[in-house]
Amino acid sequence: MTRAVWFLIGMFLVLVVASGCREEKKIDVASTLNPKKMATMTTKNVATFISDSGVVQYKVVAPLWQVFEEVDTPYWNFPKGLYLQKYDPYFHVIATVAADSARFFSNQKLWRLDGHVEMTKVPKDLFQTEQLFWDQRRGIIYSDSFIHIETETHVLEGLGFESDERLTSYRIIKPQGIFPVNSLKTQ
Length: 187
Hints:
Blueprint: H1 3-21, H2 29-32, E1 41-52, E2 55-68, E3 75-78, E4 82-87, E5 93-99, E6 101-105, E7 110-121, E8 125-135, E9 140-150, E10 155-164, E11 170-178
Antiparallel strand pairs: 1-2, 2-3, 2-4, 3-6, 4-5, 5-7, 6-7, 7-8, 8-9, 9-10, 10-11
């Protein structure tokens, strides 16, 4: 046999041995995916308006929006923050809400805002806390965390907070406060 034939036989044996040493792994992708742990929708850089009967009610801005519909308790997740604007019928901003993260439990109609949570309401009301819940079914906003409230006339602070969802009637569970006192002039 010629050298070329021996070379080809040698190459053939090397290829047979090399391919025989290779281990193939087959992965059943469908069995490794668990819909109860996966987002059914993921959207990045969200900026959208929500309307009711053709009237814009809210603007929603979020870097990441995940929807988990296949879990036992379906929810929307905003892990990188959420910003909302509430409009009056003339498209004037009447309130804002910002949070470091948020979760909306769709079946319960319950929002949970976490991190640095800040709400503003026209004319100059400011509400700050670390965790806030908005129960849309009951029409209330509440928190067990420290709350700081500033209005045109006073500053209130305390632990725990309950309010109607328009922030017009609220109470602090364990209040503390700073109230301006008119100075009395001596004559």
